[in-house]
């Protein structure tokens, strides 16, 4: 999962979307991984869509506020339709 997420970090695009299936949440690992990456560009927007074996499923967003390394990354939950 982190290998695929790393590819998303390296591609430069204003919108980055990762859709994945997991038995447990990976959001905290993605947040830590992003803090160790130093090539962020202000204005990049990340969307994570996390499918689990059982509902509820989750979605999260994060907008990069500055270029370079990020001191803190906190994905915000998005409301999904029922």
Kindly describe this structure.
- The chain has 82 residues and is of the alpha+beta class.
- The chain has one domain (2-78).
- It is built from two helices and four strands; from the N terminus they run H-E-H-E-E-E.
- It has helices at 2-10, 27-35; strands spanning 15-21, 45-51, 58-63, 76-78.
- It has a four-stranded mixed beta sheet with strand order 1-2-3-4, with helices on one face.
- Helix 1 crosses helix 2 (27-35).
- The longest helix is centred in the N-terminal third of the chain and has 9 residues, at 2-10.
- The termini are far apart.
Task: Report the count of strand segments.
Answer: 4
Overall geometry comes to globular
Strand content: 25-35%
Q: What is the spatial order of strands in the main beta sheet?
A: 1-2-3-4
Unreliable runs: none
Order of helices and strands: HEHEEE
Task: List the domain count as a whole number.
Answer: 1
Could you estimate the helical fraction of the residues in percent?
A: 10-25%
Could you say which structural class the secondary elements and strand pairing correspond to? alpha+beta
- On the 0 to 100 scale, the average pLDDT is 94
Tally the helices.
2
* Gap between N and C termini: 26 Å
Largest sheet: 4 strands, mixed
- Supply Rg: 12 Å
Question: Which features does this protein show?
Answer:
2 helices, single chain, 82 residues, alpha+beta, 4-stranded mixed β-sheet
